[in-house]
Automatic annotation (TrEMBL):
GO terms for cellular component: membrane. Pfam families: DoxX_2. The keyword Transmembrane helix applies. The lineage of its organism: Bacteria, Bacillati, Actinomycetota, Actinomycetes, Kitasatosporales. This is DoxX family protein.
Amino acid sequence: MNLALWIATGLLAAVALVGGITKAFVPKEKLAAHEGGRWTRDAGAGFVKTLGFLEILAAAGLILPAVLDIAPVIVPVTAVCWILLMIGAMITHGRFGQYNLVVLNAVYLALAAFIAWGRFALEPFTS
């Protein structure tokens, strides 16, 4: 189970890092030109960049606390925060009728729920 949790955590951290870098460093106009970034047309540039930096922090929060053995409880807490972020993403994409992205966000939500459940209950990090 520990290996499955690490794999899920690595996948979710990679998704968070790529999404975060994209939102933080790609101009909003370029994001808005893509179908998946249509929501950025109505969002402020600062909001989009803030989401990007939060996603970068999520990637770090999923991996670094456990690897460095410094407050590893942050890993499942970060997963719970990711669940909340994905609920917002699902609502946003649903409003635009982007149901394929709603499903993708639901997959990310399920990964985060697995990580939170696994690290809080099944295989918590012990010091």
